Amino acid sequence: MAAEQPSHPNHLDPSELGTKEYRDSDADSDGGEDDHGGEEEESITERPLDPSELESWFDDVGAPAKTLAFLTDISFPLSAEYLAEHARNSNNGEHGHQATHAGLPTVLDLGTGNGSALFSLRLEGGYKGDMLGVDYSSQSIELARRLGRQYLNSSATASSSAELSVDDAASEKPGDIAFETLDLIQDDPASQPWWPKAGGFDLVLDKGTFDAISLSSSTIHDPASNNERRACELYPAKAARMVKPGGFLLITSCNWTEDEVIRWFTRPGLEQHDSVRLEIYGRIKYPVFEFAGQKGQGVASVCFRRLEEIY
């Protein structure tokens, strides 16, 4: 009898890019250690924060700008403009398209690095809800926290590109931006003190974290099969569980094609979690290249929506 074929794409070969040591060295090159003591800390907090200066993830294809445009488009249910339009329709007695989330959308950034994605969403995207960036590199978290203190200084004068009226939900006092160390494979997010009472986040971002985990040689014991499994096999279900039902998961990858990302995150049951289902909500388009008669994108971004749990 032929061996059962896995429902996921073939594994990538392990690489040092999937190691914690590489992640820490990347954090050093992105922000560096403070070589000037208190003087450097003071200069950091005095300069207004420009998120575009921090971008380091797939910026060669414009991924940060394209992601921001996708998440702030008036058609995206969590965008400030969408929420403002819904609020105006509600005030006018029009029902229209029902908003998915009440209040201010919460955001979780997986493998946050320097935190640039969160700063961009807050300063340029009009996202005012609580934001959390997690990373298993403590050096990355320290860097993001230092930049966060810079944000607190610049936020007093920075204006959002998607400002709303005082009657809109998104005009409420902005939520916190926090950064915490978390091992996305070994740790249980739901046991952390910051885990939302709502049971997940409205928007979860992955900007190459799945890529790094896919390149890791780490294996995890799976009690269900009593086998050792690559960490990337368990990650999609864990990421989906961090999304509130009805919320969104945006995966950006340079190692997997668009179709492969979809196969990883929509395969049946998402590895033993039968109540978790993701559906494709949308895609971000990038420049297309052609090689040996084949066309493709150097980066793939797929946005999924978590369906209500099925029992």
TrEMBL record:
Subcellular location: Cytoplasm
An example Gene Ontology biological process: vesicle-mediated transport
Biased composition (Acidic residues): 27-43
Cellular component annotations (GO), alphabetically ordered: cytoplasm
Annotated segments matching region Disordered: 1-56
GO molecular function: protein-lysine N-methyltransferase activity
InterPro entries: Efm4/METTL10, Methyltranfer_dom, SAM-dependent_MTases_sf
Main localization of the protein described in the UniProt heading: cytoplasm
Presence of the UniProt keyword S-adenosyl-L-methionine in the record: yes
Residue span(s) of domain Methyltransferase: 106-293
Domain of life per record: Eukaryota
Extent of Basic and acidic residues compositional bias: 10-26
Record-listed E.C. numbers: 2.1.1.-
Sorted UniProt keywords: Cytoplasm, Methyltransferase, S-adenosyl-L-methionine, Transferase, Transport
Entry similarity comment: Belongs to the class I-like SAM-binding methyltransferase superfamily. EFM4 family.
Function of the protein: S-adenosyl-L-methionine-dependent protein-lysine N-methyltransferase that mono- and dimethylates elongation factor 1-alpha at 'Lys-316'. May play a role in intracellular transport.
Protein name from the UniProt record: Protein-lysine N-methyltransferase EFM4
